[in-house]
Amino acid sequence: MAIPDYQTLMLPLLRAAAEEEKKVADVADQVADQIGLTSEERVAMLPSGRQKVLHNRLHWSKFYLTKAGLITSPSRGRFVATEEGRKLLATNPEWINVALLMKLPSFKDWYVNQGETAPEAAEAIFDPKAAKVANITPEEQIEGAFRAVQSAL
To answer: Do 80 and 24 contact (CB within 8 A), yes or no?
Structure first.
């Protein structure tokens, strides 16, 4: 099995955050066990060699969930589910992804304020019917573009 993208990790991360206050390092093993990652996948590093792929994707999941108001950080490096996050979990969602987060006003406002994207365009970006959703983190996009430029040179 390949290491899931950051969107696939959002639901397991939120579920862990609903249990009690956590750190990404603590959640990584729990999530890896749930999704059946091999020992090689658990220690796979980003091409930069500075961070594990799983940890990087969990941090991006945490970032998006925080912007959506579903988790909060009571202290540095720690996070816990908010009341809104617990309410979402109570609906027993099959998954959480950016398209779902775009339905939350706090996330949509944050996303639109990141640039000059109109609300309608923002919805189209993450609407699976209107456009393909990017399943890789921004850091992975940059590294992929860098490798493509290096190879072209």
So the answer is: no
